[in-house]
Structure formats: C-alpha cells, structure tokens
Write a structure and sequence with these properties.
With 229 residues, the protein is an alpha+beta fold. It contains eight helices and ten strands. α1 crosses α3, α4 runs antiparallel to α5 and α5 packs parallel to α8. The longest helix has 24 residues.
C-alpha cells in the first residue's frame, strides 16, 4: 500500500462524530434510535420506539431494518401473548467498536515511545487487527458486498464517515475518530489505519497492493483509493 502526502499537514478530516466513546456517523433519526436502544436494559418493540421517537411506524421500521442490516441492531422474537404472532423486539448490538479509539490511541502511544520502527510496526499490527475485524464482519453480514464494500462499511462503523469520491476507486474519509492522536503521532495512527484497511482487504479476498491512503489530503478529508474488484 502506498503512503502518500504529508503526515503533518493541517488539512484533513474533522474529528469523529461519536456515540458514547467513538462510533459512527448515522443520520440523526437512526442515531437517536440506536441511542434509545443502548440506553434500555431490555429490548424494545417497534411500538415502544414509535412512542419514544414520535416518528411514524413505517419510518421507524425503515430505520430499524437499516440498522439490522448494518449489524448495529438485533431483531429477536418476543414472547407469545394471546393469539397472533409475537411482536419483534429490537436490541443494540455491541461489537466492541466503542473500545476501538481507546485501544488505538494506547497502541499508538506505546509504539511511538518504544518501537524502533513505529510506523512499520503500527501497519503490521493494524493488518492483524483488520483481519480480525474482517472475520467478525463476515460472520455478521456474510460479506456479500465484496471486499471493497465491506471495508468501506467497516470504516463507516468505526467513525470515518466515508463518502464516494470522484470515481469508483476513491473514498473520502471525512471524519477521524483519532484526529487528536493522528496529529500527535501521525505516522503511527495513520499506519494503524493503513494496516486495518490492508488486513481487511486481504482477509476478504481483495487486493491490498492496489490500495492507497493519503492522510490529510485536503481540508475536510483523507483520501482512500481502493480499486473496484
């Protein structure tokens, strides 16, 4: 993977939009639904979420379906109560991504202080981390969209707010959940991200060698290039 651009550029993405500890940028309505599910000790019905949010049932159902597809919410069968099919219940699924930012910052700080090649070691550790994320995502989603789609989806879940770039190969990462750490130790933090992308692509059958990451490419984003398969 090619590493391009200045590590110390003041340009680049915004700090990550977080959900209690650093998670992904969803639409306001979906973020609110996910927060409600996180806050409840028990799963909620569609009707309960309609009452809480004030949204139309069809709208809430659409948002829930999207959250289920992304693996952020689990749909389970409720207990039968009288005649008819039991109502579905919905609960938040914690995949441990809330720990991602804290772990990555701790790792970056440790490598920056102790490693003779912090950027290289960060990339190697990131690759193993990426392979593990890919295995978990494949178990969760089936990885039916292919390596590139799954990598972009995981980056979205981790808080990078990816947007389509100028062509099918380019993805703009408009947020960074580790922005402060990236400016403090850019080679290490961005090396971890390079490794995660590379490891996921490799695990999911993509081509890591064809990918590039340009940190702080311009005001508002880092530039990722992952050629379509």
């Amino acid at each position: 993977m090619e590493n391009r651009g200045s590590w110390s550029s003041p340009d680049g993405p915004r700090a990550g939009a977080r959900l209690r500890g650093g998670r992904d940028p969803l639409s306001p309505s979906r973020r609110a639904i996910l927060e409600h599910l996180r806050d409840q000790p028990q799963p909620l019905t569609l009707a309960a979420l309609v009452r809480i949010t004030g949204l139309h049932p069809n709208t809430v159902r659409e948002h829930l379906d999207a959250l289920v597809r992304r693996g952020l919410v689990r749909r389970i069968d409720g207990r039968p109560q009288g005649r008819g099919r039991p109502a579905h219940l919905f609960e938040h699924v914690d995949h441990g991504h809330g720990e991602y930012a804290r772990l990555a910052v701790a790792l970056a700080d440790a490598l920056a202080l102790s490693s003779s090649d912090p950027t290289g070691h960060a990339a190697a550790v990131g690759e193993e981390w990426g392979r593990e994320l890919a295995r978990k995502r494949r178990a969760r989603t089936g990885a039916a969209g292919g390596a590139r789609v799954e990598v972009v989806g995981e980056l979205d879940d981790l808080g990078f707010a990816p947007r389509q770039g100028a062509d099918d190969s380019e993805v703009l990462l408009t947020r960074c959940p580790l922005l402060e750490a990236a400016h403090r130790a850019p080679g290490v933090v961005c090396g971890i991200h390079l490794g995660i992308i590379r490891g996921m692509l490799d695990e999911l059958g993509g081509d890591p060698a064809g990918s590039e990451l340009e940190p702080f490419a311009a005001p508002g984003y880092c530039r990722l290039v992952v050629p379509p398969v």
